[in-house]
Design a protein that fits this description.
The chain is an all-beta fold. The chain has a 4-stranded antiparallel beta sheet, with no helix packed on it.
């Protein structure tokens, strides 16, 4: 299921996996709050090119 949202924050630190958080525009069944994403899962853009406030489209893969 493709969803849109806004980048809330990005963390790029040496020795740590680069990641960020997206606030979804619509509710995601079975999930509350922001979505965490990792740089190695991005398609067509590098995490260094994202900024807080960017509108993004993503696919949810909920792990239970």
């Amino acid at each position: 299921m493709k969803i849109t949202g806004t980048v809330r924050g990005i963390s790029i630190r040496e020795g740590k996996a680069a990641c960020g958080f997206i606030t979804p525009d619509t509710a995601i069944p079975g999930h509350e709050g922001d979505i965490r994403f990792f740089a190695d899962k991005l398609i067509g853009i590098a995490i260094k090119d994202l900024e807080r406030g960017n509108l993004v489209e993503f696919i949810v893969n909920l792990v239970h």
